[in-house]
Amino acid sequence: MTIEELKQLARQMQERAYCPYSHFPVGAVLECTDGSVYTGCNIENSSYPAGSCAERVAVSKAVSEGNTSFRRIVIVANTDDICVPCGMCRQFMQEFSPNLEVICMNAKGETKAYFLSELLPYQFDGSCLR
Ligand code: THU
Description:
Blueprint: H1 3-14, E1 26-32, E2 37-41, H2 54-64, E3 70-77, H3 87-94, E4 101-105, E5 111-115, H4 116-119
Parallel strand pairs: 3-4
Antiparallel strand pairs: 1-2, 1-3, 4-5
The chain binds tetrahydrodeoxyuridine.
């Protein structure tokens, strides 16, 4: 998909967000290195910590379908400034693709791109557990 298509899809995913508590809809589109695409939106819960961010929903869908190699993720929020992923999502994504490109988009459609390694330097990885 082109970056414009990914951005458009991310916006569509915002409409699926279940966010009755925060009223902060987030859409995410994850593109794997084989070109396949997985979408996500935030899913909140009345027991607040049980909710999930859009990024983790998209990553969980990909992994559960057998895709663990990611190229880029587009994330959109209705903010004036560019909104970057939370710490838990950064850690969740780096498990699979530490060099993932993270493209964040605001309400105006402006984007800023990062490498996950710059958003999460000195990440905890599985080598510590071996
Ligand atoms: N949220 C995301 O889905 N992704 C982010 O990058 C930031 C936060 C969600 C979690 C919660 O449903 C709402 O936004 C407010 O924090």
